[in-house]
Amino acid sequence: MVGIKNNRRTKYTIDLIKETFIKLLETKKLAQITATEICKLADINRGTFYLHYKDPFELFEVMQDEFNQEVMATLETGESTCTTEESLVNLLHIIQAKKTMYKILISERENTDFLSQVLLADYVRRNGKGVLTMDYSFTYKVHGSIGVINQWLGSNSDESPRTIAYLISSMGNHNTTEKGLS
Predict the structure, then answer these.
(1) Which residue range(s) make up the domain with 28?
(2) How does residue 86 score in pLDDT terms, banded at 50, 70 and 90?
């Protein structure tokens, strides 16, 4: 039925708005995009857009929240944080599948705080430790992992998520006390 939030046409329209918005974000900054522009490119009227979103900023926040929720849902299915190779592979599959959204989140934020916050929340949830008691090695692993992920996506290389997960896991398993760095 028309007007019902979860009907097929409504879902199609919301997906169309999001796809159009991502296309625009590939070439423009968020602040440069208007609802009118989204509507014109998606071939919908402005009333339809405003039925679902207040403005492009709200649409961006909704899409970011959906991305983060998908990442969290993936992390919650595993037994441990993304420090294990298998959960990291799952995370990388999401990031690879939503590569454009991930890159846009980084460019709009001009950093990777959103992903480190998701990983930190997962770490705290699983270990019951607060931010102040979190060990330095986890901080190193998160930020190093994000750097590798960004390079992987930025270079458009052919490595699989499993290969990148193995690389990240192998680099993060060095014990500083064994090297006399304690």
Answers:
(1) 1-53
(2) confident
